[in-house]
Design goal:
heterodimer, A: 8-stranded mixed beta sheet, globular, B: 13 helices, 30% helix
């Protein structure tokens, strides 16, 4: 009897769930920036089960679909940021919330940003209010190998990080070159205190990881004696060597990019992206040829010596040379206005179409999730953002943000103060 | 006699450096935001010898004027960053190039930014290219008394040609910065109480110092009048307390950096105790919108910013994008500022963001031109496009607050500035290769 009731309740729940998911949503009369084609004026997007069912001007909307009238508004794919520390450096920035840099060993491949992400970081709400749907959360750059990175859906009010993880996304690993690691350890009179030290330690780590992999393979072949002791640090690096992790390397200077490419070639792994890459314009042809993407800012410069040669033409130039570029944030502030950062590049030679790609499909490609997000295409996740004006304008507001067909942010009143409302919530 | 006055004139020209024997310049048929009246939809502005000669919709350029076609374009006063560190911080993490904070003593009112300013800073041409032609250069908010600021033009000229007005204000810091800097050194202030006590103690000493000198000089005069013997020994000089006299006698504003409401109120309370409330300016004022009516009633201006201030620190948890618009609506005189060296170039976009969050457009333009000029008593010189004022203005391809807009020409003291910069040079080099 009891069992029967449980069955009833469960099936009711499943049916309810199905119904909720089955509901179709139509966003109508909007200008659609699909990213994979020209802008569609007065277009409609039909969403079902969290996926895009149809896109275009001749979409037949079922009579029972929920309708969103987006007349005069602009719809584009949700913004994707390949460089975020939300959750691992949660607001407010006090020591107790500092969980992004395990600066106790320059090679910390065994740690995972996932274990530090605090879903209640109020920054997630503001990012959603900025039209952001997907971010890669990385460890900081205090270590040469900072640990694993995780790609998440920007879902405000999540209780656990499991509710946020982008399941289909491959995992990444964060590496960092240049000033940060050598400053952190150099100031303690430890290696690395120079760039020579940086590259030596990286080579040493990959050499050990190779030896570890060899010992595992030898054991697998012969099955003699005790299996090699598990080493979680090398385990992660073996995943790098085997191409299971996307490698994202924090690097400002072009000369260091070249040294890093040499290491990657030596140990036969691929670099997915250079992060920050303010000098990438100096080696644009090589990045294009090696198919290494570059994540960068529109105009940040001068805050450290390795950022001294940053020029605002960087992103536009890289795109013109065939490099995949992401206008990234590395900041819980800038992540809220990545559309405006993309707008900044227009003045330096970027086309509007390419500018929008730098915050949608290009970062999706960098994170290995372009099959699911990054364009408004049939079958892709219904991750999108609705603006009340051109996305490439400082005056435009995000009206609604959606992930898998579910609203993650809605601007309550056209002239209201949504951010104030969010802050009040945060302070509770 | 005539020859003499001619020579005298020549002497002035050489000294000022920004004057030259030039013909007047006229920008014709542009949309002109004068900041001193309604927008001129299609007008002409004429300037020569560094000053504005005429501006209006029916102005005819003089016959010898160099004409710039402004049709379809926008003219506005050169933007003024109401609080920035340009020239004090070249490469932020290279200590040798940073002179923005003398954090060795919590009380340093005697410091003057121009003694640390680097006129050849690469940030100056970069900032200017986005339309920012001047800034209030202030020390970083670290010490309780941080020192004196100056109004500096971004012409990149020699140091004796760039200070429009200075020292222009005395700066103090409340809240987290002083206590987190000196507290760990077991030095006062370790708490907000400590900061307030240091403010009071210093101002009290400055007041007594001023009185001592006043008494001495009055006594001296009396002695002279009565032909009494040798003058009394003068009081001992104290450069810290000396620097504060202009604040106490109301000659320069007291700019108080404060984020939280309680910190803003502490600044107001102490200013009132020393009779200088009418010269008080609040810097940052992250929570100021929560007491907008009070600030409006007390006529205390606020240097809002950056507009992008986030609720990412304990003292900025109240940060909202609507701060500037709410203050403006309540009648508070608002200027927008970046608090930055390298990002001062984003000042127009800070103002644009304030517009997106409710600040009326013309008020936003004023917050980066006429308002800072007014707050720092420099409105006779700059901040608006009026006859007789300094020809600091920009010509833009469109809305100057929109990041895609190109700034076509920048004039400082009537002189067209080069658009070259360290960054542009690298770009040109790249294109050549």
């Amino acid at each position: 009897m009891n069992r029967f009731f449980v069955f009833l309740i469960l099936s009711a729940a499943i049916i309810n769930c199905r119904q909720a998911l089955a509901e179709e949503i139509a966003i109508e009369h909007a200008t659609l920036y699909t990213i994979n084609g020209p802008a569609i004026p007065d277009g409609t997007i039909l969403i079902k089960d969290g996926k895009i069912l149809e896109v275009g001007t001749a979409v037949s909307v079922p009579s029972d679909a929920a309708r969103i009238d987006a007349k005069g508004k602009f719809v584009m794919p949700g913004i994707i940021d390949t460089h975020s520390h939300m959750g691992v450096y949660a607001w407010p920035g006090v020591d107790a919330n500092s969980d992004g840099n395990e600066m106790t060993d320059p090679i910390s491949s065994q740690v995972d940003a996932l274990d530090s992400v605090y879903p209640a970081d109020p920054a997630f709400k503001r990012a959603a209010a900025g039209g952001v749907t997907t971010v890669q959360i990385l460890p900081g750059s205090g270590n040469l190998i900072g640990g694993k990175a995780v790609t998440v859906h920007v879902i405000p009010n999540a209780i656990t990080v499991d509710q946020m993880i982008f399941r289909e996304a491959p995992r990444g690993i964060k590496m960092a070159l240049g000033e940060n690691p050598k400053r952190v350890y150099g100031s303690r009179n430890q290696i690395p205190s120079t760039r020579m030290g940086n590259f030596f330690l990286l080579r040493e780590a990959f050499t050990k990881a190779q030896e570890y992999r060899d010992s595992l393979e030898r054991y697998d072949q012969k099955k003699e004696g005790d299996p090699p002791a598990k080493n979680l640090k090398w385990e992660t690096l073996v995943d790098v060597l085997n191409g299971k992790l996307l490698v994202h390397v924090h690097c400002y200077r072009a000369d260091e990019m070249m040294r890093m490419i040499e290491i990657a070639d030596e140990f036969k792994f691929k670099i997915a992206s250079f992060q920050h890459s303010v000098e990438a314009y100096k080696v644009a042809d090589i990045l294009a040829q090696k198919k290494i993407a570059a994540a960068t800012w529109a105009d940040w410069w001068g805050f450290k010596l390795e950022a001294w040669n940053a020029i605002p033409w960087n992103a536009a130039y890289l795109v013109s040379k065939g490099v995949i570029v992401n206008m990234h944030s590395d900041s819980a502030d800038i992540v809220q206005r990545l559309n405006v950062e993309a707008e900044k590049t227009l003045k330096y030679g970027m086309s509007e179409a390419e500018a929008l790609k730098t915050i949608t499909i290009y970062p999706a490609m960098m994170l290995g999730i372009d099959k699911y997000v990054g364009t408004l295409e049939i079958g892709k996740n219904a991750d999108l953002v609705i603006y009340d004006g051109s996305p490439l304008s400082i005056y435009s507001h995000v009206v609604l943000t959606m992930i898998n067909g579910k609203t993650t942010y809605r601007r309550e009143t056209p002239t209201g103060a949504p951010t104030a409302h969010l802050v009040q919530q945060d302070q509770q | 006699m005539k020859t003499l006055s001619f020579h005298f004139g020549l002497f002035l020209i050489i000294v000022s450096g920004s004057f030259a024997w030039t013909s007047p310049v006229a920008i014709k048929d542009a949309k002109i935001h004068t900041m001193a009246g309604p927008v001129i939809e299609k007008g002409t502005i004429v300037f020569d010898n560094g000053k504005i000669l005429a501006v209006g919709s029916d102005v005819k350029p003089p016959a010898d004027a160099k004409i710039i076609d402004g049709s379809g374009k926008i003219v506005m006063p050169g933007m003024i960053d109401a609080n920035c560190h340009v020239g004090l911080e070249e490469i932020s993490q290279v200590t040798a190039s940073v002179d923005s904070s003398e954090s060795t003593d919590p009380v340093t009112p005697q410091l003057y930014v121009m003694d640390g300013f680097f006129p050849e800073s690469a940030a100056i041409p970069v900032t200017r290219r986005n339309g920012v032609t001047a800034g209030i250069i202030s020390p970083d908010d670290i010490n309780v008394f941080t020192g004196m600021s100056a109004l500096v033009e971004f012409s990149g000229k020699r140091i004796d040609h760039i200070v429009l007005k200075g020292p222009i204000a005395m700066n103090v810091t409340l809240g987290e910065a002083p206590k987190t800097t000196f507290g760990p050194k077991n030095k006062m202030p370790m708490t907000r109480m400590g900061t307030a006590a240091l403010l009071r103690k210093t101002l009290q000493e400055a007041r007594e110092y001023g009185e001592k000198w006043k008494l001495y000089s009055e006594k001296g005069k009396e002695q002279k009048k009565n032909k009494e013997g040798a003058a009394k020994k003068p009081p001992e000089k104290d450069l810290k307390l000396e620097a504060l006299q202009n604040v106490l006698n109301g000659k320069i504003p007291l700019v108080a950096a404060a984020h939280r409401v309680d910190d803003i109120l502490t600044a107001i309370r102490i200013a009132e105790e020393f009779g200088i409330k009418k010269n008080l300016v609040i810097n940052h004022g992250t929570d100021a919108y929560q007491i907008a009516d009070l600030l409006s009633h007390e006529k205390i201006p606020v240097l809002v910013g950056p507009v992008t201030t986030q609720p990412d620190r304990m003292e900025t948890l109240g940060a909202i994008y609507e701060n500037a618009s709410r203050l403006n609506k309540a009648g508070v005189l608002v200027a927008i500022q970046t608090s930055d060296a390298h990002n001062s170039r984003n000042l127009p976009y800070e103002a644009g963001l304030a517009v997106a969050n409710g600040l009326p457009y013309e008020d936003a333009l004023r917050s980066i031109s006429a308002n800072p000029a007014k707050i720092f008593h420099a409105e006779e010189e700059i901040g608006s496009l009026e006859v007789g004022k300094r020809a600091n203005l920009i010509l833009a391809s469109g809305d100057p607050l929109e990041p895609r807009t190109e700034i076509l020409s920048v004039f400082i003291g009537g002189e067209e500035m080069s658009d070259n910069s360290f960054q542009k040079e690298m770009w040109e080099k790249l294109k050549k290769n």
